[in-house]
Amino acid sequence: MGTTAFEEGKALQAAGDLDGAERRYRDAVAADPGDFRALNNLASVHEARGEADAAEEAYRRALAAAPDSAVIAFNLGRLLHLAGRTAEAEPLYRRAITLDPALAGAHFNLGRLLQESDREPEAIDVLERTVSLEPDAAAPRGLLGDALFGQRRLLEALAAYRAAAALAPQDGEPVFDVARTLESLARNDEAVECYRRSLELAPDADAAREGLARALYAAGRAAEALESLRAWQAHAPGSAMAAHLLAALGGAEPPARASDEYVRGTFDRFAGDFDRTLARLGDRAPELCAAALAAAAGGPAGALAVLDAGCGTGLCGPLLRPFARRLEGVDLSPGMLERARARSLYDALEEAELTAHLAAHPGRWDAIVSADTLCYLGALEAPLAAAHAALAPGGWLVATLEHREEAGTFRLEEHGRYAHAEGYVREALASAGFGAVTLARETLRMEGGAPVAGLVVTARRAGAGA
To answer: Are strands 418-421 and 391-404 parallel, antiparallel or unpaired?
Structure first.
């Protein structure tokens, strides 16, 4: 009965009748509790219906019945990986590979897991084996390219991406990856052609349209860059990113601040690579802010109510937590907040526009820390006034800004962020009511091989103990 029930279950599952398939697989298991094939397929039915707990139970029973099955070990590892349980998934992938060294899917998923865990050198080794097992598959070459790109092994990444593009000529993603790698190599004219090819394959890809404008501008083809942005606006009239970049490149009047839609879209798209990218750039803003807070408010004593204003993925969280009896974060990007939440450092995280969030919470915080966030706001009067009101008497504001040497107020730069003049920052802080102002000039990070000049702002709301 077991064999017949199993075969009938397979036929029902192939026909899309999951309920019927489940019944026949259960009949097979009732006849033979050690029928690992029926248990494995029963798990796949639960998985197809989104029943993760039931799927895990069935996969574990199947693996207990067939501990030498590479496929079942892989299936259980994949289920746990999808649930974010990477510490449990990794040994299962490795077990599957030990049992069947030719199981390409286990190599591929292990490589993805390692890359997602910022273990790119290990990922490269695993993915190179995957490519040797599946020489005609585009996906392993693309993922290998991602790992090599993350290690700044750009020429090797370029070769991997080009191989992926050749194997999947109708897929715009590997062509885009070729373009961004060429751009990183400052081979901008070549990048332009690849971005255009990727847009032929995927006309709605915002990242490719942004890359095309950026590469054209870097190649000294400013008029074509503006033309490409206007074509983007014609293709997607409501695109906040196209409008913002057009202003940044001088094709429209710059706004007083980046729109919520632009900031949210930019950072949702960037969330997955944000931490790795800033690490490669040598970003110092979190450390600079933590040092400034310590200098102003004293060493970390777990006594302050602290707001991480524009918290992103929570890079400041580990540095601010020792100061805080309560640590809150606010950001516009749900993708960034999801990663901040995974750090389990914050007492509360809110999705909101910063100035409005500050204005809604008068006197709430002892310290407001804002690393690399005010550079998306040009005019500072409203956000600084809201920050002043949101601080308790004697509370501290600590923030980084990008600095411009020219006189004046602020400027929207070609990269889409604002740079502020030091005199303007001092005036805006004074107008908001801050005292004890310190502005320190620091290098925030490196971009394109050049230092990004910044200001580290420390200012205090007058009041008790001030």
So the answer is: parallel
